[in-house]
Structure formats: C-alpha cells, structure tokens
Amino acid sequence: MSRVLTASIVELCSPDHHDDPEIIAGWTRNKSEAGVRAMLATPGNLLLVAVEGDTVLAVGCIMGGNRIGLNYVDPAHRFRGASSALLVEMERRVRDAGYGEVVLESTATARAFYLARGWQETGAGAPRAGYPMRKLL
Asked: What is the total count of domains within the chain?
C-alpha cells in the first residue's frame, strides 16, 4: 500500500506538487509503511485496496464515516478501472453506513475524475489547497 501511495503521488500528481521535492516529501511523509500501519490503526479509518492476484492496484481510505481521505492508483495500472471500482465500493460502504452524502478534497490531478463520476464541487478550491467535493448517495 505504501508503495502505491508514494508512486501515485510522485508520478501522477505533478499538477499539484509541481515536482517540488519539499512538497512531495510533505505529501509522502505519512505514506511510509509505518504511516500506513498508523492509518490502519486509527479508529474511524477504513482502508481498502483494489487487487489483481497479489498486486495492489489502488488504495483508498474512508475516514470518519463519510469522508474519502485517499484514492490513489498505481501508475503502472492507471486507466484500467481500479480507482473507479474502489471509488464505487467506498461510496457503497458510506451509503450502507447510513450517510446521505460522501465528501472529499480532490487534487487538481483527480478533479476531472471525480466530476466525471457525479461528484460536485462545494467550494472555490485551488490547485495547491484542493477542491472540496461531495456526492449525494
């Protein structure tokens, strides 16, 4: 999971971090193996993975019941539907938990991905600050 999160940030999120080593370090600091273990141990977090055999294709996290905190795909498996399938599953789990909406803060990189899947922007947003979004379930 750590490898997928880090690779996705480094290789796919250039529109957000502009390949600035300091920004990348900040984004990936808690994506280490220890950081992922801490996320797994945090009450209210639910980490999910899309897998093919023994290969992790994408990693997602629901936080606090109805907030998606992570949805990253392995760059080697981009455009194969793993992130979309993971998103559908996270939305289903939030709905099944009784929530009427799910929220997230999108990167500039993923903004079009979410808009194409029925998400709506809820604030002005900015490339470095993120784009608050929601989807009614």
From this structure: 1
CB 113 within 8 A of CB 88: no
Q: Is the dihedral of CA 129, 38, 85, 99 positive or negative?
A: negative
C-beta of residue 130 within 8 angstroms of C-beta of residue 136: no
Among 106, 98, 89, CA closest to 46: 89
Residue 118 phi, psi (nearest 5): 90, 10
Q: Give every CB contact of residue 22 below 8 A, 6+ residues apart in sequence.
A: none
Pick the closest to residue 13 from 56, 65, 70, 67 (CA basis): 70
Domain with 33, as residue range(s), is: 2-136
Q: What is the pTM of this model?
A: 0.91
pLDDT of 129 > 70? The answer is no
Q: DSSP code of 30?
A: G
Rg (CA), the chain: 14
